[in-house]
Amino acid sequence: MTGRKTNRGRVRAGAVVLLLLLALAGALGWGWFALQRFAVAPLQVSAAGQSIDIGRGASFKEIVRELRRRGFTRAAPFVWRLQAERMHVAGRLHAGEYALPPGITPRQLLDDMARGKVLQHDFTIVDGWTFRQMLDLLRQAPKLKHDTTGLDEAAIMQRIGAPGERAEGRFLPETYAYVKGDSDLDILRRAHAAMAKTLAELWPQRDKDLPLATPYDALILASVVEKETGRADERAKIAGVFVRRLEKHMLLQTDPSVIYGMGDSYHGNIRRSDLTTDTPYNTYVRPGLPPTPIALPGRAAIEAALHPAAGTALYFVARGDGTHVFADTLDQQNRNVACYQLKRCP
């Protein structure tokens, strides 16, 4: 009897152990399945443009706590930790700002943090902006350190490694990517280097016998072309007009240069008195090119200045629709002005 009872006890104990093992296996299986679902389930990001900023030295718990505080996840830190351990990234998360686009999953976010795939922002310098316009908008760009605040032009050029240079025209219009914590001086250095590289590349390829002595002269002419037209099909034509006027020692008579020289006194209209007021930039009274660029020219405008279109036109006037009409003689120009500016077409 005792032997039978012992055997029955062993059977019952074995059954209990088996049930416990089955229960444990079921729990582990469910946990694994739940972790799988967690890894690929989108975070609760309700709108585009969201991001999370991970400070230097932040712990794993602090990262998850911030995600929970902002409502992106309800999962406990240990769940995130399990997923991070499963991905072998728990100790490799980088500080920085990370994008949280709608649909992003915990696995994707952890992968971004492990690879340091921080959120990039863009600042676009637009062709034809002045240095002052560019600087005003750069100082408003989000996520940048605004180290130019309080610095004048000379100090800025000193800080970017170009002491003694005039700033106007020296920065290439392009889109520059940056991350949170970069300085506005970083973008200016890159844009300045990009313009120097562009000039160094294009200047040796220029047409022969241009009335331009230096790459800086080309930059000045390109800035005038840039302000006169935004049409790709007209840049070289307008450059051709100015090159022929320089060759004939004619005054350039370009309104954008006059406007630049007027500075803050320009309020939208040029008066006859403005055209006779002597400033270094008044090309109606001073021969040759303006003393500096009058804007930030793009690559296309520089190419036009270095490869002007052949022709005989010495004048042009705006039609009012973004295009220009060209003339060889002053009489033709006067008729065009009467027609397109004064609306006195025959």
Radius of gyration: 34 Å
The count of domains is 3
Element-level helix/strand string: HEHHEHEHHEHHHHHHEEH
Binned strand content: 5-15%
Structural class: mainly alpha
Set out the fold topology.
Blueprint: H1 2-40, E1 51-54, H2 60-69, H3 77-87, E2 96-99, H4 106-115, E3 120-124, H5 131-138, H6 153-159, E4 175-179, H7 184-202, H8 215-228, H9 235-247, H10 255-262, H11 272-276, H12 299-306, E5 315-318, E6 324-327, H13 330-340
Description:
With 346 residues, this protein is mostly helical. It folds into 3 domains: 38-118, Endolytic murein transglycosylase (Dna Ligase, domain 1), CATH 3.30.1490.480; 120-201, no CATH class; 206-340, no CATH class. It is 47% helix and 8% strand. The protein contains 13 helices and 6 strands. The chain has helices at 2-40, 60-69, 77-87, 106-115, 131-138, 153-159, 184-202, 215-228, 235-247, 255-262, 272-276, 299-306, 330-340; strands at residues 51-54, 96-99, 120-124, 175-179, 315-318, 324-327. The strands form 3 sheets. It has a two-stranded antiparallel ribbon with strand order 1-2. A two-stranded antiparallel ribbon has the order 3-4. Strand 5 and strand 6 (324-327) form a beta hairpin. Helix 3 (77-87) crosses helix 4 (106-115), helix 8 (215-228) crosses helix 12 and helix 9 packs across helix 12 (299-306). The longest helix is centred in the N-terminal third of the chain and has 39 residues, at 2-40. It is elongated, with a radius of gyration of 34 Å. The model has no long low-confidence stretch (mean pLDDT 90).
